[in-house]
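Pilot study result, target chain (114 residues):
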Amino acid sequence: QLQASGGGLVQAGGSLRLSCGASGTTFSNNVSPKDWYRQAPGKQRDLVANITDGGSTNYANSVKGRFTISRDIAKNTLYLQMSSLKPEDTGVYYCHGYSYRHYWGQGTLVTVSS
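Predicted structure:
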């Protein structure tokens, strides 16, 4: 399974760091999380950021300059550093990986108060 953590309640302008790891020996050896998605209340799940095997990163326009995605390959862990948070960043954040099929973390809730 992919396990995401680090969400919480934060005031606008604050920061949070999300983490996503793969558990289970066989699973963790075969699946590397590379994407973060966000699902705001009543909306579809959208891509926030992803990172390629080569380390290239891509961000949704709404988070460029504020969020940073990174990986610890040795730990097979994906991170999302979120700064200058806005109320519109509120939602459930899911990490995602693919190995023959899609794998999703359970989601971690981020709430940004104004």
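One observation from the pilot: The helical segments are 25-30. A full batch analysis is planned for the follow-on phase.
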